[in-house]
Amino acid sequence: MLNDVLALRRSIYALGNQLPISDDEVIKIVSQCVLHAPSAFNAQSSRVVILLAKKHKKFWSTVVTALEKVTPPEKIASALKRVEGFVAAYGTILFFEDEDILAKMQKQYALYADAMENWLQQGNAILSYMVWQCLAEKNIGASLQHYGNLVEKAVISEFNLPKSWRIVAQMPFGNIVAPAAEKTFLPLEDRMIVIK
Ligand SMILES: Cc1cc2nc3c(=O)[nH]c(=O)nc-3n(C[C@H](O)[C@H](O)[C@H](O)COP(=O)(O)O)c2cc1C
User: Fold this and answer.
1) Is 183 close to ligand 1, i.e. is its CB under 6 Å away?
2) Cα separation of 21 and 179, whole Å?
3) Whose CA is nearest to atom 27 of ligand 1?
4) How many whole angstroms separate alpha carbon 175 and alpha carbon 178?
5) Which contiguous run of DSSP H or E holds residue 35?
6) N or C: which end of the chain has fewer CB within 10 A?
7) pLDDT attached to residue 93
C-alpha cells in the first residue's frame, strides 16, 4: 500500500496543459506543502512561485533565450526539444531559498553556520518532494529541473521578486501525456542496513 502511494510519483516529461483539478486546488496543495514542510530550526527559508498560463510560458521563453546563448551548436536542438516538453505543460512551480534567512540563521546559530546552507537546501528539497508527491496523488505529472543558474537574474526582475531569493529548482507540471520510463533500482540490501 505504502509502495503504491510512493511509486505514484515519478519524473514525468510528457506533460499536457489540462489539469484534473482547478488552479485554486493546485494553489491550496502547494500552500499546504509550504506551511507543513519541515525545515532546519524551523527556519522556513524556502520560497515558492506558481507560474500559470502566460507567466509559465514566459519563464520557459527566458530559459530558451538563455540556452541559445550558452549551448554549443551541436547540442542546441536537443536542449530546446527538452524545453518544448516543459512549455507544453500547464504551469511551473519555482522553488527558491531566501538568502536573508540563511544569513540570519547563520548569525543566530553561529556554531552551525557552516552546515546551515546545506540544511536549508535540504528543507527546499523536502518541500519540492512534498509538492511533487501531492500533485502525483492528484494524477498530475511533474519533473524537477535546474535551469536556475542561467535565468535567476532575469526571473527575479521579470516577476518582480525579492532580490534575496536564490532560485533552486523548477517544477513543470501538467496532465500525464505519457508515463515515465521503467525505473531501475539498485539492490536494497546495498542501500539499507537493519541493525537489531
Ligand atoms: C535533487 C534532485 C535533482 C534533480 N534534478 C533533475 C534535473 O535537473 N533534471 C531532470 O530532468 N531531472 C532531475 N531530477 C529527477 C531525477 O533524475 C529522477 O528523480 C530520478 O531519475 C528517478 O526517477 P523518478 O523521479 O521517476 O523516480 C532530480 C531529482 C532530484 C531528487
Assistant:
1) yes
2) 19
3) 10
4) 9
5) helix 23-36
6) C
7) 99
State the chain's maximal CA–CA distance in angstroms: 56
Which class does domain 2-191 fall in?
alpha beta
CA–CA gap between residue 43 and residue 120 (Å, rounded): 8
Where in the chain are the domains? Answer: 2-191
Mean pLDDT by 10 residues, the chain (196 residues): 88 97 98 98 99 98 98 97 98 98 98 98 98 98 97 98 98 98 97 98
Which grid cell is 143? Answer: 519533473
d(CA 25, CA 31): 10
Please report, for residues 48, 153, 189, the alpha-carbon distance to residue 5 in angstroms, rounded to integers and kept in the order given. 24, 37, 22
Instruction: Identify the residue whose cell numbers are 532560485.
Output: 167
pTM over 0.90: yes
- Which atom number of ligand 1 is nearest to the Cα of residue 125? 1
The rounded distance, in Å, linking the Cα atoms of 44 and 106 is 14
pLDDT at residue 70 in the model:
97
DSSP 8-state class, residue 109: T
